[in-house]
Amino acid sequence: MDRDDPVRRFLIATAVAHYAKAPRWDRAGLVHARERIIELFTGTLGYTHVDDLGLDPTREQLTSRLRAFCRAPDRRPDDVLAVYVAAHGEVLEGSEDHVLLTADTDPDDVADALPTVELARRMLLDTPVRRLLLMLDTCYSGQGGSELTAAALTRMTRHWAGEAGTGRHHLRPARGTGERRRVPPTAG
């Protein structure tokens, strides 16, 4: 990395608006929310939109494509990566883990949905990415999901302390703690 190279800013934005196994969960409005984020980040904030995910990713698509982007040979520690995910989310009873409901989530087995912590781990662990803004526009993102994921991010990034100019991450729920969209009862 040359010190004269400008910091690169990337946006990856996705929304799960359609659920193949649970059409009652469909939220067409999330497509518009994603478009507004793309307009804001690429226009006002000067980010480059990376359209690797598009709409309605499955668990495997979401995690593998984000990881591939973060592990790409041209990725640098000073890159800034903003990731926006609009989808249903739940906090699991018992474990209190926040999970994301991807397009392939089984409505009868929400406990097997994608843990938000895993999403963060796939983007950060053993990748050059050090500056991450993870925006969750999900149910319960402000009611436990952000705190749990922030704690996991801190554990994962502790070893960055010795690296110059690195170690910034931020998790921001897109909804306040008093706001939520409720997933139908069969989702947990």
What does this structure look like?
The chain has 188 residues and is of the alpha/beta class. The chain is built from four helices and eight strands, in the order E-H-E-H-E-E-E-E-H-E-H-E. Strands 2-1-3-7-8 form a five-stranded parallel sheet. The chain has a three-stranded antiparallel sheet with strand order 4-5-6. Strand 1, helix 1 and strand 2 form a beta-alpha-beta unit. It is globular. The termini are far apart.
Fold topology:
Elements: E1 9-15, H1 29-44, E2 48-49, H2 59-71, E3 80-86, E4 88-91, E5 98-101, E6 114-115, H3 116-124, E7 131-137, H4 141-157, E8 168-173
Parallel strand pairs: 1-2, 1-3, 3-7, 7-8
Antiparallel strand pairs: 4-5, 5-6
Helix pairs in contact: 2-3, 3-4
Shape: globular
Lateral strand order in the biggest sheet: 2-1-3-7-8
* SSE run: EHEHEEEEHEHE
Structural class, please? Answer: alpha/beta
Q: List the uncertain runs.
A: 176-188
Q: Could you tell me the number of beta strands?
A: 8
Write down the overall mean pLDDT. 83
Number of helices: 4
End-to-end gap: 47 Å
Helix content: 25-40%
- How large, in whole angstroms, is the Cα Rg? 16 Å
Q: Biggest sheet, open or closed, and with what strands and sense?
A: 5 strands, parallel
Estimated share of beta-strand residues: 15-25%
Short précis:
This protein has 188 residues and is α/β, with parallel strands linked by helices.
Properties at a glance:
188 residues, alpha/beta, three-stranded antiparallel β-sheet, 4 helices, 21% strand, disordered C terminus
